[in-house]
Amino acid sequence: MNTPNKLTILRMILVPFFLVSFYIEIKNLGSSLIISTIIFVIASITDFFDGYLARKYNLVTDFGKFMDPLADKILVAAAMICLVGASRMPAWMAVLIISREYAISILRAIAASSGKVIAASSGGKIKTVTQIIAIIMLLLNIPFAMYVMIIAVVATFYSGVEYIYINRHLLTY
Predict the structure, then answer these.
(1) Could you tell me which residues come within 8 angstroms of residue 21 by beta carbon, excluding any fewer than 6 positions away?
(2) Residue 160: enclosing H or E segment and its boundaries?
(3) Structural domain boundaries, residue 166
(4) Which of 117, 114, 120 is nearest to 172 (CA)?
(5) In Å, what is the CA distance from 51 to each residue of 16, 61, 72, 92?
(6) Closest by alpha carbon to 76, among 4, 132, 9, 158?
(7) What CATH number is given to the structural domain containing 114?
(8) Which residues cross the membrane (predicted)?
(9) Distance of CA 34 to CAs 31, 47, 133, Å?
(10) In angstroms, rounded to a whole number, what is the distance separating the alpha carbons of residues 10 and 42?
(11) How far is CA 152 from CA 18, 35, 132, 133, in A?
(12) Angle, helix 122-139 to helix 34-56, in steps of 10 degrees
């Protein structure tokens, strides 16, 4: 197993640690979630490095193509669900973002069944960055974090429409 794939697995392993620390901190501190944020940031950084290393050293694998986006979705969904449960994020935002992730995952599966790979778009990368920044800000209870999350929702919606439009030929039979 190569280093990028190990980083992807590490990101998935960090999710339960994030969940436990989140609920311990919410129960005991309630406002700023330092440990949870650190775990989330470390997990998010592994996302950057696994992709960077895979491309730079030509270590792209089928495992990585499948598991990297899955690990990203698990991490972001876990954080958003926790934030909704802690009343730091409206449920409708999480539902929209998670629904987009499911839709694009299905589109990628359809493409894969035809032997095609849907590469990440610039809109998808902006979506990921804004989501991560917004989640970190919400974890730290920064006052204007919700405005950043609104930007993340808009970027998420835009990138979803972009992926579907560009790959609409995959949806016709």
Answers:
(1) 33, 35, 36, 39
(2) helix 145-166
(3) 3-171
(4) 114
(5) 22, 11, 12, 30
(6) 132
(7) 1.20.120.1760
(8) 6-26, 33-54, 74-98, 132-158
(9) 9, 20, 15
(10) 10
(11) 21, 23, 9, 9
(12) 160
- 3-state DSSP assignment of residue 54: helix
Residue with tokens 């270590």: 59
Backbone angle region of 148, left / alpha / beta, with phi > 0 → left and psi within -120 to 50 → alpha: alpha
| HSE value, Cβ hemisphere, 13 Å, CA-based, for 76 | 31
Mean residue pLDDT across the chain: 92
Q: What is the CA radius of gyration of the chain?
A: 16
145 SS3 class: helix
Q: CA angle, 39 as apex, 144 and 34 as ends, to 5°? A: 50
Q: Which two tokens stand for residue 18?
A: 């994030």
Neighbours of 83 (CB within 10 A): 23
Contacts of 81 (CB under 8 A, 6+ apart): 94
**Residue 12 binned pLDDT confidence (cut-offs 50, 70, 90):** very high
Express as a percent the part of the chain with pLDDT over 90: 72
CB 56 within 8 A of CB 151: no
How far is Cα 88 from Cα 163, in angstroms, rounded to an integer?
A: 29
